[in-house]
């Protein structure tokens, strides 16, 4: 591979897409003047490699490599012989496409070459392009950045494109597609237009109220509209971070005492020997993580060191392993609390008619011994969720918790085993299984899927989800400005007959600034308001060629 083209083959991450700016500051030289090229299909041997060119000289590039006849029929696949513009040596037989702007991905003249995917072919074409005057290698994300500046997409759509490229599961793909197709763009633009309309009414009242050409109830209608908008934004923010969790992946941690089958459980769920399993208690000393796909949801599953209850660990390595186990449990979205069926049976004499009560008491004592904390550093809350009416037998959870009764194969008494299995049937978050035989695994996977649905939602059935920390930050600021306006509006006297018009307008002028700030924060999400620094951060993780 030619050293000068090594950068063309490096992978990156894509974090943004289209933006519709009402006030674009096109100061970047990547948008004005330069014609760029890059390999868009990724490095390595493949059947077909796609090389993209975009900019004002795309037409000249196309003619030099493939001939002028292609220009007469845009958006049509042409099979052509590509020749080096200088030596006229044949480079390849390729499919060539011509997309005159603005009807192209970037909004400017673009051409694409679909060549054979051998490294020599790709390097030869890239070298030929690099020798052409005024044609430069693209920076990561530069094609998408141009699409943004040319109004082909807004930032929320760009981020949806990034998420789609990096989606590893079905649910991630669906959520990314919704965002890329403009669902958030439509929602946020609707809110922004509401704010603009209400701000216009406020400013009209300030400018023309003395002329008595403004309806008396105009400010009441503005307050009503903004109150509804405030409620809508609050509901959008109160989503439990489901979209963000689906985008980034759910974190689950297996915890329990030593030798209860935690590593066996990890291997069983992952369907491979990811962790070492022995009969010796304390085999696992460090955290072992595996990334898996469960029914379309991304899950990072961590096996941890066994946490000793009454007998504290004395080994320095084991002490560190236990500390890491508790730390992982503290930040987990799902806790898989694993216990040995024999532990429960030894806790007290089995009583058929009191098994639920005894089980609850056992869990309370067991969790207390493990000394697990939540994300706030407080004692972990847990609950038993009834399958019958959805009620719980304890306080609500910050994270989902599934109690796993393992080693059911060692229970010899059939009646006791049946009663234990009934616990799994009675509660949504109790699973009874044997990691050795696989008995009970389908029930555990179903309950794990239900927990994932609670934590991530369903992109098919829900309104557009918040998937970016950046969006949440700006929406929170927007809501704060909106609530400032409404608070000041609530302080206005119901009857302002005795209040001079000048004083009313002065108060409203101050309130109007809150609405302008709210509009500004919404614009930061979609790209109506942007700076070069913001755009650089968003587009810097794009792949070269995208």
TrEMBL record:
<dbReference type="InterPro" id="IPR027266">
    <property type="entry name" value="TrmE/GcvT-like"/>
</dbReference>
<keyword id="KW-0819">tRNA processing</keyword>
<feature type="domain" description="GTP-binding protein TrmE N-terminal">
    <location>
        <begin position="35"/>
        <end position="151"/>
    </location>
</feature>
<feature type="domain" description="G">
    <location>
        <begin position="252"/>
        <end position="347"/>
    </location>
</feature>
<dbReference type="InterPro" id="IPR027417">
    <property type="entry name" value="P-loop_NTPase"/>
</dbReference>
<dbReference type="InterPro" id="IPR031168">
    <property type="entry name" value="G_TrmE"/>
</dbReference>
<dbReference type="Pfam" id="PF01926">
    <property type="entry name" value="MMR_HSR1"/>
</dbReference>
<dbReference type="GO" id="GO:0003924">
    <property type="term" value="F:GTPase activity"/>
</dbReference>
<keyword id="KW-0547">Nucleotide-binding</keyword>
<dbReference type="InterPro" id="IPR027368">
    <property type="entry name" value="MnmE_dom2"/>
</dbReference>
<dbReference type="GO" id="GO:0002098">
    <property type="term" value="P:tRNA wobble uridine modification"/>
</dbReference>
<dbReference type="InterPro" id="IPR025867">
    <property type="entry name" value="MnmE_helical"/>
</dbReference>
<dbReference type="Pfam" id="PF10396">
    <property type="entry name" value="TrmE_N"/>
</dbReference>
<dbReference type="GO" id="GO:0005739">
    <property type="term" value="C:mitochondrion"/>
</dbReference>
<keyword id="KW-0342">GTP-binding</keyword>
<dbReference type="InterPro" id="IPR006073">
    <property type="entry name" value="GTP-bd"/>
</dbReference>
<protein>
    <recommendedName>
        <fullName>tRNA modification GTPase GTPBP3, mitochondrial</fullName>
    </recommendedName>
</protein>
<dbReference type="InterPro" id="IPR018948">
    <property type="entry name" value="GTP-bd_TrmE_N"/>
</dbReference>
<dbReference type="InterPro" id="IPR005225">
    <property type="entry name" value="Small_GTP-bd"/>
</dbReference>
<feature type="domain" description="MnmE helical">
    <location>
        <begin position="155"/>
        <end position="543"/>
    </location>
</feature>
<dbReference type="Pfam" id="PF12631">
    <property type="entry name" value="MnmE_helical"/>
</dbReference>
<dbReference type="GO" id="GO:0005525">
    <property type="term" value="F:GTP binding"/>
</dbReference>
<dbReference type="GO" id="GO:0030488">
    <property type="term" value="P:tRNA methylation"/>
</dbReference>
<dbReference type="InterPro" id="IPR004520">
    <property type="entry name" value="GTPase_MnmE"/>
</dbReference>
<comment type="similarity">
    <text>Belongs to the TRAFAC class TrmE-Era-EngA-EngB-Septin-like GTPase superfamily. TrmE GTPase family.</text>
</comment>
